[in-house]
Structures are given as structure tokens and as C-alpha cells.
Design goal:
By secondary structure, this protein is α+β, with helices and mostly antiparallel strands. It has 3 helices and 4 strands. It has a 4-stranded mixed β-sheet with strand order 2-1-3-4, with helices on one face. The longest helix is centred in the N-terminal third of the chain and has 12 residues.
Length: about 90
């Protein structure tokens, strides 16, 4: 499973999402949407206009994504990781 967090500085929901992912031992790659002109392109293509956005690509195929601070989604990912299905 590959998890990517699209975030930006001074974004409280981004900070909360990052902390929750770390607290639940979910490995992720963080992309600062202000870091490069095209850094936000993947989330813009999905229709998102604000951060945070989390994109999860599952090993067996498929994808999930959401915006905002979503502890319910993060807990579901933590469950998959604990069950060995997220590796």
C-alpha cells in the first residue's frame, strides 16, 4: 500500500492528518503542494481544491482518496496495516 499526503504549511487539518498517520504507524509520502508548480496536479485532477488530500494505492490494485482530516479513514488504514493487508 502506498499512501501519499498532499499538504501545505500552516494547515491545521494537514498537521492533524500527518500526526494521525504517524500515531497509527502508517507510512506515507508527504507532498507540499506549494513546493513546485505542478505538485498539486494529481489532486486537482481528482477535483480537490484544498488540503489535506490523502491518496491510497492498494497493492492488489484500486485506490481510495479523501480530503480533510478523516480519523475514520485513518483508523481503517491502521486496521489494514495491523492485519498485514496494508504492506
Amino acid at each position: 500500500m502506498n499512501v501519499t499526503l498532499y499538504s501545505q504549511k500552516n494547515c491545521m487539518p494537514c498537521t492533524g492528518t500527518k500526526r494521525a498517520l504517524k500515531r497509527n504507524s502508517i507510512e506515507f509520502t508527504e507532498v507540499d503542494v506549494a513546493s513546485a508548480p505542478d505538485a498539486a496536479d494529481p489532486i486537482l485532477e481528482l477535483g480537490y481544491r484544498s488540503t489535506p488530500v490523502v491518496i491510497v494505492e492498494f497493492d492488489e490494485g484500486g485506490q481510495d482518496h479523501w480530503d480533510g482530516y478523516r480519523p475514520d479513514k485513518i483508523e481503517a488504514l491502521a486496521y489494514l496495516v495491523a492485519e498485514g493487508r496494508g504492506a
